[in-house]
Amino acid sequence: MLGKKLVTAQKRGETRALCLGLGMVACSMMMYFFIGITIVPFYTKSVWTTETVCKVLKANIKDKVFCPNSEGSEDEEIFPYPCLQVWVNLTASGQEVMLYQTEDTLERNPKCSYVPDKLENSKEVKARIETIASNFKKYQTFPCYYDPGGTQTNVILSRLYPSRGLLFAFLWPTLMFTGGCLIIVLVKISQYVSVLSAWQ
């Protein structure tokens, strides 16, 4: 009687462990799919892939401009802000080009190097842009990214999704997938050993 209870408890434990492993594999596949349709397209779409050194030539703050958001956005989300324009000397080619913060900055407003997030306090936005401009004037040389193919003549300060960030995004689903497969393999080995012991 006790042996039957132990066998039943063992089977229940194996079933739960197998469900856990399959669930981990299924969740990791969903995470892979989500990363594949969100992060990977932005990474492959970016043409600013080569890192070089940029030297600041001038950093000017011009009159306020309006933030042109994506199509379909409401007018109340469009807000004015000072336009910071940073021109740098590209070490790789020696050209004078305009610097943008990220790829998204160029799409949101190609006239300005920095596009702030919408803030209620316009003084805070102005102070932040002035701080950024003073930092560019203070630190004249810094790493930046340019397009080696030449389709984009401008440069960006940082990529939205760098190679290291992409690898880090794939790390967690990979660990979950490996753990799930390991649990399934251990359950199958346990079942095989149990059957082998009962047969002997």
Automatic annotation (TrEMBL):
<dbReference type="GO" id="GO:0005513">
    <property type="term" value="P:detection of calcium ion"/>
</dbReference>
<dbReference type="Pfam" id="PF03185">
    <property type="entry name" value="CaKB"/>
</dbReference>
<feature type="transmembrane region" description="Helical">
    <location>
        <begin position="20"/>
        <end position="43"/>
    </location>
</feature>
<dbReference type="InterPro" id="IPR003930">
    <property type="entry name" value="K_chnl_Ca-activ_BK_bsu"/>
</dbReference>
<protein>
    <submittedName>
        <fullName>KCMB1 protein</fullName>
    </submittedName>
</protein>
<keyword id="KW-0813">Transport</keyword>
<keyword id="KW-1133">Transmembrane helix</keyword>
<dbReference type="GO" id="GO:0015269">
    <property type="term" value="F:calcium-activated potassium channel activity"/>
</dbReference>
<keyword id="KW-0407">Ion channel</keyword>
<dbReference type="GO" id="GO:0015459">
    <property type="term" value="F:potassium channel regulator activity"/>
</dbReference>
<keyword id="KW-0406">Ion transport</keyword>
<keyword id="KW-0325">Glycoprotein</keyword>
<keyword id="KW-0472">Membrane</keyword>
<feature type="transmembrane region" description="Helical">
    <location>
        <begin position="166"/>
        <end position="187"/>
    </location>
</feature>
<comment type="similarity">
    <text>Belongs to the KCNMB (TC 8.A.14.1) family. KCNMB1 subfamily.</text>
</comment>
<dbReference type="GO" id="GO:0008076">
    <property type="term" value="C:voltage-gated potassium channel complex"/>
</dbReference>
<keyword id="KW-0812">Transmembrane</keyword>
